[in-house]
Amino acid sequence: MPNRVRWGVLSTAAIGIQKVIPGMQKGELCDVAAIASRDLRKAEVAAQQLGLPKAYGSYEELLADPQIDAIYNPLPNQMHVPWSIRAAEAGKHVLCEKPVSLTVAEARALREAQRRTGVKIGEAFMVRTHSQWLRVREIVGSGRIGKLRSIQGFFSYFNTDSKNIRNIPENGGGALMDIGCYLINISRFLFGEEPARVFGVAERDPAMKIDRLTSGILDFPSGQSIFTCSTQLVPYQRVNIFGTKGRIEVEVPFNAPPDRPCRIMIDDGRDVFGGGVTIEALPICDQYTLQGDAFSRAILEDIDVPVPMDDAVKNMAVIEAIFRSAISGRGEVPLADD
After folding, report:
1. Which DSSP symbol is given to 119?
2. Which residue, 9, 65, 14, is CA-closest to 37?
3. Which residues contact 113 (CB under 8 A, 6 or more apart)?
4. CB 301 within 8 A of CB 281
5. Cross-strand bridge partners of residue 217
6. Could you give the CA distance from residue 330 to residue 94 in angstroms, rounded to a whole number?
7. Is-cis flag, bond preceding 169, omega within 30?
8. How confident is the prediction for the chain on average, in pLDDT?
9. How far apart are alpha carbons 84 and 98 in whole angstroms?
10. What angle do CA 154, 158, 160 make, to 5 degrees?
11. pLDDT tens for residues 81-95?
């Protein structure tokens, strides 16, 4: 059995070039061996910049390379499912950027392809392998904050560029798809269950038509999660986890820095002035290194990937239900199953 997974990257997307590939290159189990673009020159420039041995001028050439074991897919959202299916049919494992699809139906189609081909396919929620979130889940499970009852999250940035892919509806742009998906995913991760119903309110940009300010309530069997996400507010992110005996605050929950420790604050609730707050600093790490190694380990050891397709379908079902609720004005049930 090989001791490293040979990765190929579909496209020269900024997140791959700037964050994911450099992170994976620091991993123990990842060998990023090739990158592809529909423009060969772009692929060659990226390969030279990152020190990759192979550059391809088409996605098809990369998928045909027998020396590539797995594909990282950071293509625009509307291209996630079609190219992930083609990669699976070429016998490649696939780590696909979030959100994995534009619709639940698309996510189901990718899950069917995964089952049919037998490869591993997962959604790239890098937060799920970061040590700070594993530590938060450990604290919640220990009973230190009592019974988990409520999660409060906020995630925002400011971007009004109509040409930016995050502001194009056909590309799956908008606040809920781009960043609200994290708040949904981490709430499901901590509660360890699915919301029975959800409520959503969305305000759309009058010109670009994407949702620019969206809030949601997820009604879980054990409690509730409330969140707001926006693409046109001051940049900010924070998550609070409330139990019957204490609270956990995650300082930088999603864009965790790779060059300094992340901090979580555990409050025993003794007073409102922070007298009961303990701060834990997690060791410096790169969440993209951790994600790449965790996915590679799943391939090498034939175990489950961190965020499998069943989870991806369920997350997409919550997103769809929030959008439905924003239109209907009623609580809506996530429909993950056919």
Report:
1. -
2. 9
3. 84, 85, 88, 89, 121
4. no
5. 199, 226
6. 37
7. no
8. 97
9. 12
10. 135
11. 999 999 999 999 999
CB 162 within 8 A of CB 186: no
Q: pLDDT tens-digit profile of 170-220?
A: 999 999 999 999 999 999 999 999 999 999 999 999 999 999 999 999 999
Give the span between the Cα atoms of 101 and 99, in whole angstroms. Answer: 5
Identify the CA nearest to 67 among candidates 47, 92, 88, 44.
Answer: 92
Quote the pTM value: 0.96
Specify the length of the chain in residues: 338
Q: Give 191's strand partners.
A: none
Eight-state DSSP code of residue 151? E
Query: 165 with 260: CB under 8 angstroms?
Result: no
Kindly report the backbone phi and psi dihedral angles of residue 265, in degrees, each rounded to the nearest multiple of 5, phi listed first. -115, 125
Tracing tokens 């299916």 back to the chain, one arrives at 85
The set of residues, in sequence order, having a beta carbon less than 8 Å from that of 18 and lying 6+ positions away, is none
Q: Which of 111, 87, 98, 10 is nearest to 288 (CA)?
A: 98
Q: In three state form, how does the secondary structure of 76-98 look?
A: CHHHHHHHHHHHHHCCCEEEECC
Residues 297, 110 contacting (CB under 8 angstroms):
no
50 has a pLDDT exceeding 90: yes
Rounded to an integer, what distance in angstroms lies between the CA atom of residue 314 and that of residue 104?
Answer: 8
Give the model's pLDDT for residue 337: 84
CB contact set of 141 (below 8 Å; sequence gap of 6+) = none
Quick one: tokens of 31?
């060998």
Mean pLDDT computed over 106-131: 98
CB 111 within 8 A of CB 309: yes
Residue 6: phi, psi to the nearest 5?
-90, 115
Q: In angstroms, rounded to a whole number, what is the distance separating the alpha carbons of residues 151 and 226?
A: 6
**DSSP summary character for residue 332:** B
Cβ neighbors of 297 (< 8 A, separation 6 or more) are: 29, 303
